[in-house]
Amino acid sequence: MKAMILAAGFGTRLFPLTIDRTKPAIPFLGKPLVGYVAEYVAKYGFHDVVVNLHHQPDSVIEALGDGSAFGVKIEYTREVPDILGTAGALDNARELLGDDTFLIVNGKIITDIDISAALETHRSSGALATMVLKPNSKRERFTIVETESGFVTGFGDYATPVSEAELRDTEHEISTPLMFTGIHILEPRVFDYIPRGVYSDIVPTFYNPALKNGEKIAAHVTDASWYELSTIPRYLDISLAMMGAGDVHFGRNCTLGGSVSLKDSVIWDNVTINDGATLYRTIIADGVVIEAGEHFENAAIVRADMVRGCAEIPPKALRGYVQGNNYIVPLN
Number of structural domains, the chain? Predict the structure, then answer.
């Protein structure tokens, strides 16, 4: 059985951390994010892995290589000239995925969800596909997945926060919506629904038509830990949650001056922090120099020359400003 890791996205909400790499290739506590995903699927016996590429493809190849460092063997697919969407990515890899059940995992997540348990749910259900779901207890902005008796029945709107008044209203029970984790198990017959050679996303192309046709889509619901690193604030918060309060993670070849104050920060490679600098809740990207006495908090910082070399700043990106040789993105 093979696994496919989706790694072709642009990562616009993580800009400028994704100027020179795609989102799954960003470093996360000492290894590329997609490397965690590769190790994760390998833990459950998925050693033959397909990884799709589009945006900054060389950054993923550089991060993963042939996969041996992460316990897998990787075959890459390229989406050129245009990105193909989540269903189009499967179409582009259908010959590699073969005629057996396969696993799909988003390349931007950190999780300890038990894939073996999800496989058992899938096999016992006789479903065409199984979506791994999780209660969205914080009601974050994820699409609501509707279920009944262990099967997916449809998809709702984005979850919305519950007001204080609603929480105080004890007459009405506040239900916790379910959200999709980006992990699903599919039978090869899903390709009957996926057109050849065009952009298409998985929900409108496969899931909605399959449900309309009466296909069984199983729901495997789990409370296991799950993090999705899709924005800069989430990247920082999740890094700090996994490091521990007050900690600082350093990449390779970093240089510290005297009397620096560092707390709750992620420092990438080849960073120089000069005398008396203060950093609190920051992400410092490759090659940045923090000058003597500078103070930053709640910010992501990259070299300004990298941003000047961009044709445009993505509309979904947080806005920043140039200070000296750096580009500062406030996170609050």
Answer: 2
